[in-house]
Structures are given as structure tokens and as C-alpha cells.
Amino acid sequence: IAYDISGKGNNGTLYSVASWVDADDCISGQCVYLDGTDSTWNTVRVAEDDSLDVFGTLTVELWAKITDSRTHQVIYKRHGGGDPSWASYRVNFNSSDKPEFAVYNTSGSSATAIADSAASLNTWYHIVGVYNGSNVYIYVDGLSADSTPPSLTGDILDSDSWLQVGGLDGSQMMKGYIDELKIYPYVLAANEVQEHYIKSKGQFGQSNSAGSVSTPVAGGALLDQDLDQFSTNYKDRSGNDFDCSNSGDPVWKSSVNCKSGRCVEFDGSDYLNCGDVVANGEVTVTTWFNSTYTDQ
């Protein structure tokens, strides 16, 4: 199960061509790998829910990495009847490796924003698609990627079927990785898209064995631990390599016990050692904690 932490309960079910990947190969915590084999619908499926049927405005945000050249359907909000369209919205890489974002309205019209530049294989990209009721936009790594955003008006088609993640059918199966998928029923402005990218770039910027993302942003977090990785090596997402390790025996807790995703429980004698994290000048420390100890 791919758990939804938005509070809407839109969990995804992994099918035969989808598998979990360790945190070292992902953007944040674990991510999903799609092997690209010809297996219609058997990727990741999120059941139909009214919260995924947005109408006037929409933003889709995700990280994706493709490993070969083909038409990769990354997400596809399916409309089962095909009348007036087979989809409400989708994100994909086309056969030229260019990211696309398409929106379909209730009258059967559609518009597709296509990035001007092709993606490189084995490289993570931050992709954001936006529909504001008059135009369709696509952003790649924080910047508007289509120099001539197409126009579209009207409400988005009310889908009657599931959200497909990582593939559509035998000719459009994704081969690669997906992480940090978010869908918003409102518009992220251009400056907000850039802020999201800069923040995540600063948190997650690091090389890994399966590819790369951009380098850390100066002035970003000194250390960023999400404590969400089911490992004895807690990866620092700031890009500054302050990975933490167990001292004693901290216990991983499931998401129902935690603030966001998974978390770690300490018994009063164990801790995490994150090395010599030194801040020069001013410093801010933030975290969530829940104490079970009462001082008598």
C-alpha cells in the first residue's frame, strides 16, 4: 500500500509491475519503481474518490525519473466511459522524452502543455502541471517549461474511475521511478512552484546510485531528517550528509502513530547520532514530538 498522508485516504495499491525502492535511490524515503513491462493497469492504482475529481482549477506535483525512451504515462485520472474523453488529466513523458501535462474539460476539449526540452534519462525531475481555468502550464525543476502554454476553459471532466500511477496500457507503461506525488484542487502560482522546487532541491539534493538530482541550495536546511525510512541509516535530506545512526534500539512506528508518514519511538535510553552538526551564527531547530513521560 502507498499511504496517502493528506488526510483524504487516497491510498494506492501496488500491482505486479510496481515495487518499493530503498530510500538511497529515491527523493524522500522510499519510492516506487515501475519495470515497464506490458501489463495493462497493473502498476499503482488509487480508487475513485470525489476528492480527486477537481473541476475549476488543478495542480499536480511530483518527482519522476525515466530510464529509457518511450511514452511513459506517469499519472492518468481515468474516465471509464470515454465520453466525452477517456481521461480528466494526465502527466506523461512523450516518445521524445519531453514531459507533458494534459487537461480534458466537460465539453470534450483538451489542451496539452509540452516541455520545450527533453528530459535526460536516469535523472530526477520535479514536474508540476497547472490548470487555472484559462491555460495549461507545465513546470520542470521550478521553471515554466512550455514557452507557449495552450489555452483551455471550462470545468475539468468529472472522472468516474481510478487514478492510475505509472502506466496506462501495454504501449504506454512507465519504466522508471515516481516519488512525492501531490494533487491540489487549486493553482500553485509560478513563484510557489519555484519555492516548492527550491525547498525540495535543498532537502533532497544528492547523488545516488540510480541517477542524480540537482545540488543543494545554499542557505537551505543544515540537516533535514524525516525519520520515515525504515533503516538503521537515517538519510539527511539537506544534502549536507549528516546521516544519523542508531545508538541503542529505537523502534519504527507505523503512520497511524505518527504526525506524517512513519516516525521513531525512543525508550529513554536510546538515541540517534547525527555527527558534528555545527551552525555558525543564528540557528533554528524544528521538530514534532510526543512525550509519554510524566514528571512526578
Mind explaining what this structure looks like?
This protein is mostly beta strands. It contains 1 helix and 21 strands. The chain has a 7-stranded antiparallel sheet, with no helix packed on it. Strands 2-3-14-5-10-11-12 form a 7-stranded antiparallel sheet, with helices on one face. A hairpin with a 4-residue loop joins β10 (125-131) and β11 (136-140). The longest helix is centred in the middle third of the chain and has 15 residues, at 190-204. The radius of gyration is 20 Å and the shape is globular. The termini are far apart. Mean pLDDT is 81; it is low at 205-220.
- Percent strand equals 25-35%
Mean pLDDT: 81
The rounded Rg comes to: 20 Å
Poorly predicted ranges (pLDDT <50, ≥5 residues)? 205-220
Shape: globular
Strand tally is: 21
The number of helical runs is 1
What structural keywords apply?
296 residues, mainly beta, seven-stranded antiparallel sheet, 5% helix, 32% strand, globular
